[in-house]
Amino acid sequence: MIGFLDTLAGHALARTPAADGCGITISREGRFLTVASAGRNARDLDEKQYGLDDGPCLQALRTGEEFTVADMLGEQRWDSCPAHAVACGTRSSLSPPIAAHTDTAGALNLYSPKPDGFAGTNLAGMRLIAAQATGTIALAQRIADDQEFANDLETAMRSRSIIDQAIGVIMGQQRCDAEEAFGILRGASQNRNIKLRDLCRDLVTSVGGRPPQDGGLRPRP
Predict the structure, then answer these.
(1) What's the rounded Cα separation, in Å, for the pair 79 and 94?
(2) For residue 134, what is the enclosing H or E element?
(3) How far, in Å, are 37, 130, 131, 134, 145 from residue 99 at the CA level?
(4) Which of 162, 192, 195, 202 ranks highest by number of CB atoms within 10 Å?
(5) Cβ-proximal residues to 144 (8 Å cutoff; 6+ apart), any chain
(6) 106-112 and 97-98: which strand pairing?
(7) How far apart are CA 151 and CA 23, in angstroms?
(8) Contact, 72 vs 93, CB < 8 A?
(9) Mean pLDDT over all residues of the chain?
(10) Could you tell me which of 117, 115, 119 has the C-alpha nearest to residue 86?
(11) φ/ψ bin of 137: left (φ > 0), alpha (ψ from -120 to 50), beta (otherwise)
């Protein structure tokens, strides 16, 4: 994903002759990250906004709206962000949103050393690049979610294996069926304020003399 986003950042920079830097910001679990950049100063200018928790790229990210700053020298918004940009040689910026109103919302951040550096920019082209970034980030998120689901499922299967072993122990000790054995284990878990999986692990360990083997989705070596 990162390689493709780097390519997109470079492509956006190449299509805006007045720009000298481009960064791609995303928000993930409450943190802001520059996941790709091209040219000069983009990463530094992005990170200044993260430190302030404010700025044009974060406004675009949070609102899903496009933000253009014609001249940082006269800009009154965003605390010390405009002054920092001017000190870095940046006078104007353009920030189309990426993946608006999602868990991985972001912005495409273009910076220019010229006032009104984006006055003649093909905004439709920049929005298309932002849309391509949106698709890439959405795909990466889907892959991450699928992996998390697989990990959760494997954990659940391992827990089920340990619980099944403990149910077998209780059935043998109490001469009861599986449903009654599970009720006994669940009651003991609640009374002792201990997780059912941990209770079952302790029981099987005490009976067998060693920790139980976890069952899983992957074969054990």
Answers:
(1) 18
(2) helix 123-174
(3) 17, 8, 8, 5, 16
(4) 162
(5) none
(6) antiparallel
(7) 32
(8) yes
(9) 85
(10) 115
(11) alpha
